[in-house]
Amino acid sequence: TTHSIAVFVGSLRKASINRRLALAVQRLAPEDMRFVFVPIDGLPLYNQDFDDGYPAACQALKKQVEQADALLFVTPEYNRSTPGVLKNAIDIASRPWGTNSFAGKPAAVIGASIGSTGSALAQQHLRNVLAYLDVPVLAQPEVFVQFRSDDLIDGEGRIASEDTRKFLQQFVDRYAEWVARHVR
Ligand code: FNR
């Protein structure tokens, strides 16, 4: 059976190292995993007034999440937390009250940064948010990728380091098991 994965990349920039990490994971994933990159750049800033009549772009986001079997969050670290654009998308899909689109979907959180912490603190914040949203997040392996050199992963998701490739393959294998275990 095919599993569809809704991928959230928490960076909007073209050369994003997190987008490249997401593409690398997609390349390593088994045939039966279909990655759907969820656009978050066209969303309005969440406003609780939306709950009286949800904007079309927000409804479309919720539908994309609901149609997915599983979630993959690939987050940069901005000032020791997740970027606002990613939190905004999560807030939108979690509402209106009582219609949290994420509930019960298996997920993983990974990320990359320039610094030696590899986005670890952003990921930890995100795990806290997802716990509240009733999302079972894969605990291990944690993936904190440090881009010491910008060509670690290229724009097509090709990985220059054999160690990094092996490590990410281990992650993907565990993630695939995690998804299969939660999806009927
Ligand atoms: C950063 N960066 C950063 N890195 C880090 O390791 N810890 C941090 O707290 C921060 N804080 C931070 C704040 C802001 C506003 C910016 C713009 C950047 C650096 C960050 O890791 C780097 O810009 C990455 O390239 C961002 O990921 P993308 O956009 O390449 O995916």
Written description of the protein model:
There is one protein chain. The chain has 184 residues and is of the alpha/beta class. It has a single domain, classed as Rossmann fold, CATH 3.40.50.360. Helices cover 37% and strands 15% of the residues. It contains five helices and five strands. The chain has a five-stranded parallel beta sheet with strand order 2-1-3-4-5, with helices on both faces. Helix 3 links the parallel strand 3 and strand 4. The longest helix is centred in the C-terminal third of the chain and has 21 residues. It is globular, with a radius of gyration of 16 Å. The termini are close together. The mean pLDDT is 97. Bound molecules: ligand FNR.
Strand and helix map with partners:
Blueprint: E1 3-9, H1 17-28, E2 33-37, H2 56-67, E3 70-74, H3 84-93, E4 107-113, H4 120-132, E5 144-146, H5 162-182
Parallel strand pairs: 1-2, 1-3, 3-4, 4-5
The structure holds ligand FNR.
- Span between N and C termini? 10 Å
> What is the CATH topology classification name?
Rossmann fold
Q: State the helix count.
A: 5
The fraction of residues assigned to DSSP E strands is 5-15%
Mean pLDDT comes to 97
Characterize the overall form: globular
- By CATH reckoning, the class would read Alpha Beta
Number of domains: 1
> How many runs of DSSP E, i.e. beta strands?
5
Helix content: 25-40%
Structural class: alpha/beta
- What small molecules does this complex bind? ligand FNR
CATH superfamily: Flavodoxin domain
CATH architecture: 3-Layer(aba) Sandwich
Please give the largest β-sheet. Answer: 5 strands, parallel
Uncertain parts: none
Compressed to H and E, one letter per element, the order equals: EHEHEHEHEH
Strand order of the largest sheet: 2-1-3-4-5
Rounded to an integer in angstroms, the radius of gyration calculated over CA atoms is 16 Å
Protein name: NADPH-dependent FMN reductase
Cofactor: FMN
Domain NADPH-dependent FMN reductase-like: 5-146
Pfam families: FMN_red
